[in-house]
Design the sequence.
């Protein structure tokens, strides 16, 4: 999604915007008045820093690239219902310059999100600030380096999330049991145009858009399916939509995930099965820590060109092996082959990822 | 015409918010009583199948583990337990991030802090 150009919105949009904002404000004000809920079972929370760190070496078309990265997430709970959360990423992208064997690069800093959450009631959480765009599931839930099974991004990731993968505005979201068999989850958001740039930090840009995501989760089957919709309120005012799914069969150490997305800028899908070798009857100590992963993906160019998406139709297959040393620490590796009109190439990655959690206060007592 | 549409839209949002709040309050009471009674072993037989404290605690632990594996495993390997106050913060974060239900969250926190 190209950077927003700041075109003045039309009068019809102003009307809808006023309605949306007024509605959101009224709901926000009405909810805490109507609902007063105590949570006696939950221990008193303490500020925490969690996050991931890693060092990933990639060979993209034979070009080596070193990528140390640390992404701390600061969580500051306030009272029973409020939470401030922010993720900052410090990442170096070091590559070789022509004629030199040394690696050069600079540290890139970005504030991925900085949001204030208000848990209004079991059904509604209101979020304001800069938040990860909830389009599909990869951007919000699978993006962190210690979570993702393969270290490369899906080709279609920028379709609904844009280049900065974040929105600036307000969001209402929640999850609740619809019946005893399945839960419903949803997110509805509005993002304002932002061209803010802090010195030495990646621009905090966002597009003006509205969107939503809804899904159902069946806990017994461990099956999740859902869809996303987004309407751009600037430039070509196009629509984007997508579907996502995930399934972890309870009887097997197997998981499937996938997404399909479509917009005027392009469309495509990715499917990712992963299998933990814990049922292999030999070398069990090592096998139960080993995970095999594959990802198949395809991208089709749309009517409108985009800087953050491939310029031509592209297919990519990847296979990976991950080894979990212990909870939070693992070695990752993968091989992929990309096919496109610009030429086919290999993509290798190898590295280490680590998840950390540090309490900023006494964490052991209630 | 615009004024009428504005009023209708606001009214719809208000009614929807009120319904959600009212329903949420009722649901919160049910969940609170279910989780609390399961943990302390005072649940009714209709909820747990037995009023024995041992069975109630086992039910709570079973539910907590099931929900922990189902919800956390949607995205990542289920982590080891954290200290209680850390767990409360992380669970609040995950409740927002992964839209975990209130009932699941309470069972998971209880299981993870036992």
Sequence:
């Amino acid at each position: 999604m190209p950077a927003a150009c700041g075109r003045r919105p039309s009068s019809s949009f102003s009307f809808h915007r006023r309605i949306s904002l007024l509605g959101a404000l009224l709901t926000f004000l009405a909810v805490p008045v109507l609902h007063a809920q105590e949570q006696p079972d939950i221990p008193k929370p303490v500020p925490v820093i969690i996050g991931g760190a890693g060092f990933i070496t990639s060979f993209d078309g034979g070009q080596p690239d070193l990528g140390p990265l640390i992404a701390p997430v600061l969580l500051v709970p306030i009272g029973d219902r409020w939470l401030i959360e922010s993720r900052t990423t410090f990442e170096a992208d070091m590559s070789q310059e022509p004629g030199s064997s040394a690696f050069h690069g600079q540290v890139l800093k970005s504030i991925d999100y900085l949001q204030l959450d208000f848990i209004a009631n079991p059904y509604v959480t209101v979020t304001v600030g800069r938040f990860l765009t909830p389009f599909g599931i990869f951007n919000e839930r699978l993006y962190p380096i210690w979570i993702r099974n393969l270290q490369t991004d899906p080709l279609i990731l920028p379709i609904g999330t844009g280049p900065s993968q974040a929105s600036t505005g307000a969001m209402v979201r929640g999850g609740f049991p619809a019946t005893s068999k399945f839960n419903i989850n949803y997110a509805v958001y509005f993002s304002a145009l932002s061209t803010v740039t802090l010195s030495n930090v990646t621009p905090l840009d966002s597009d003006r858009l509205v969107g939503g995501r809804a899904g159902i989760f069946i806990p017994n089957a461990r099956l999740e399916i859902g869809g996303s919709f987004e309407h751009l309120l600037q430039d070509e005012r196009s629509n984007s939509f997508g579907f996502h799914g995930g399934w972890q069969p309870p009887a097997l150490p197997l998981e499937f995930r996938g997404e399909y997305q479509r917009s005027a800028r392009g469309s495509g899908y990715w499917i990712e099965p992963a299998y933990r070798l814990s049922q292999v009857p030999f070398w069990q100590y090592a096998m139960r820590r080993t995970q095999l992963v594959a990802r198949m993906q395809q991208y089709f160019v749309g009517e409108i060109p985009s800087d953050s998406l491939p310029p031509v139709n592209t297919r990519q297959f990847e296979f990976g092996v991950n080894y979990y040393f212990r909870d939070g620490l693992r070695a990752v590796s993968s091989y992929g082959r990309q096919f496109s009109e610009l030429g086919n190439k290999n993509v290798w990655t190898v590295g280490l990822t680590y998840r950390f959690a540090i309490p900023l206060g006494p964490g052991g007592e209630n | 015409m615009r004024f009428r549409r504005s009023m209708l839209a606001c009214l719809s949002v208000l009614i929807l918010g009120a319904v959600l709040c009212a329903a949420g309050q009722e649901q919160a009471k049910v969940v609170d009583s279910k989780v609390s009674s399961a943990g302390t072993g005072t649940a009714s037989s209709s909820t747990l199948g037995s009023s024995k404290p041992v069975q109630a605690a086992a039910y709570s632990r079973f539910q907590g583990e099931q929900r922990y594996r189902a919800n956390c495993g949607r995205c990542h390997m289920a982590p080891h337990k954290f200290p209680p106050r850390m767990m409360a913060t992380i669970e609040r974060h995950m409740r927002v991030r992964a839209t975990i239900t209130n009932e699941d969250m309470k069972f998971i926190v209880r299981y993870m802090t036992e």
Summary: Chain B has five helices and no strands. The mean pLDDT of chain B is 72. Chain B touches chain A through 61 residues (CB under 8 Å).
